[in-house]
Amino acid sequence: MSGGTAARPIRVVVCDDQDLVRTGFATIIGAQDDLVVVGEAADGEAATRLVRSERPDVVVMDVRMPVLDGIEATRRIAGPGVDDPTKVLIVTTFTLDSLVFDALRAGASGFLLKDARPAELLTAIRTVAAGESLLAPAVTRTLIGRHAEHLRPADRDTGVLDALTAREREVFVLVADGLSNAEIAQAMVISHETVKTYVSRILLKLSLRDRVQAVVLAHRLGLANPA
């Protein structure tokens, strides 16, 4: 046996009001060596209680549920003012639901559609647990569609990016196209840690809260591919 210490599994709570969906997610997640399901909830209120008692790393959260919906549950778990926020991955069927965007603003770290493949769900959980934000390509497109009607001529002034270096601009565009840090690292042939440093600098320089705001800004400036 190796003398090394095994990494602690990522602790996950699954919250969905549909028994079949919840059980399916829990089964897929629980079959992984690096993931463990520490609780299941059928509504947002139960999820918030589980978070307080189990202290998971990630909550897989549905949006529309009885008692307390996923938006308010996300706000209580990960929102502004929460002392010890837990990362939330929104998984829902509602591609164009405005509630999804409310959930992202409430503090969710990522968004995935329920028709995603099991491997995509597992990757999303690991990505969010690692401290990265994640947006499914469909969400990126929807974000742009939602904000397109609010574009003003001033939004096209790329002067706001003058603070970025050429390399940071390159990373900025890839973030806007929905690439994860790992994918950006591969595309630019640089290390994962270097990408994380670039992304942190970009958000700081542009006074952006997260990757969601970066996506919207990049598309407002016409710097990313809406497809």
TrEMBL record:
This is LuxR family two component transcriptional regulator. The keyword Phosphoprotein applies. Keywords: DNA-binding, Phosphoprotein, Transcription, Transcription regulation. GO terms for molecular function: DNA binding. GO terms for biological process: phosphorelay signal transduction system; regulation of DNA-templated transcription. SUPFAM superfamilies: C-terminal effector domain of the bipartite response regulators, CheY-like. Residues 157-222 form the HTH luxR-type domain. Residues 11-129 form the Response regulatory domain. It comes from Sanguibacter antarcticus. It holds the Pfam family Response_reg. InterPro entries: CheY-like_superfamily, NreC/VraR/RcsB-like_REC, Sig_transdc_resp-reg_C-effctor, Sig_transdc_resp-reg_receiver, Tscrpt_reg_LuxR_C, WalR-like. It comes from the Bacteria. The modification 4-aspartylphosphate is found at D62.
